[in-house]
Amino acid sequence: MLRYFLILTLYLFSTLASGWEDHALLTRKVLEGWMRRDVSAASYLNQSVQVESLQSFLWATKTTLPARMMEIETWARNREPGYQPLPKQLIYDPARPDCAKALDVCFEKALRINLDVPLRPMVYDPSGFYGRRRDFNRILDAREMMPSYIAADNLRNRFVSVPDHAYLRLADVIATASIQPDFGFDVYLYENNPSLFGKLYGFGSQPFGAAAIPYGSQGFFHMSSYHESGVLFLLMPTLKNTYPEYRAAMYMALSRFAAETSHPYWAALFMGWGLHYVQDMTQPYHSSLTRGLTYSSILTALVDKIRGNDKAFSDLTNIQANRHILLENIISHIMTSSKQDFDEYKLLLNANLIDSSRDNDIPGCAIQANYLRNEIVPRVERDASRYMADFHELLPTGYANNPEFNAGLFRDYDSLLLRDMSSSQRLRMSRELAPFLEWYGAYTRNCIRQYGMKA
């Protein structure tokens, strides 16, 4: 039984590992709406910041950054259940000869991120504003942004490479950075993954899942098991080893450090990276691994599998994966559609993203006080218990409740799904999803207030 439970769990992790479909788009809309309504936010986010290379930042802070890195490590060891400590040989120490030879590689190893990801300056540019400027070039090859083993079909032509020392609007740096962790930052970090760096990082073997599947290894850094049933932890203790809070705390601490040491570009970049994990926790399929499933259905499927009947088990995992993918892509399709028929739904979702009426009702963004675990996930779970059943009910059976359908392979499935729904159904679905976008916006603004505007 345990063996098959693990198989089910690993399948869900590997299938559902990607977060919100388009962080850059959503974050940009949050920030634009905020700047229109708040003079202080506009003053902060409209600043121009000069691009600075990683090497320049590290050289300028080589005597002060190591202490901040150790503070982050100490916090993680003391506050994060299941945290695997940074190996001693990877501690960021520019005085160590091997580190001094390549500060950037040494720093990236201390962050324990994918060394195959190019950290070249870029900017999300949907309007073409930067692309019309001299020496800013549209990125046509996604390999300039991410490794070849990361899927990137929907990202082409939306980003622009940035020349050295150019100036960017701070809001654009944050929006761009908020999607970058999905470019492979957390892929192949385990010792049994097909990478050399994974064998150095000390995370051990990937707890479960196919070690060769890129996004399967990412799931443990982008999904939460913080409030799953004790039954799950009893069956698999390594479910506690999820790291979104660790990532958010690390990058937000680095953002504050960069601001304190007068490196505004890196302060904005680190902030955007940290926001990614905060925002992932507002996605209901990331705040809980078993969203929409009952333990009885899981156990029934597992018992059938043990008896030699795989159908219920396979059906359950396929349906769960389809629902997750459809939720994200429906929102993305509505938000980017030029169809007038979708204007009402787009306005509704946009209104919730930029609605700041509940910002003062939630505690300030104290990430190192286990903010993701104790604040964000419980709120999202409460809304999920109210709205997600209706969302599942609204999804046409032929698309979302059909185990023979594979949303990950079927092109334009979200467009066809929305086409087949009535206008009242589309409106109802938008209303069911709107609260999660409201949390996306609220926690994005709260964390920028705390780690940017107050830094």
UniProtKB/TrEMBL annotation:
Gene3D superfamilies cross-referenced by the UniProt entry: P1 Nuclease
SUPFAM superfamilies: Phospholipase C/P1 nuclease
GO MF, any single term: hydrolase activity, acting on ester bonds
Name of the protein: Phospholipase C
Source organism: Aquicella siphonis
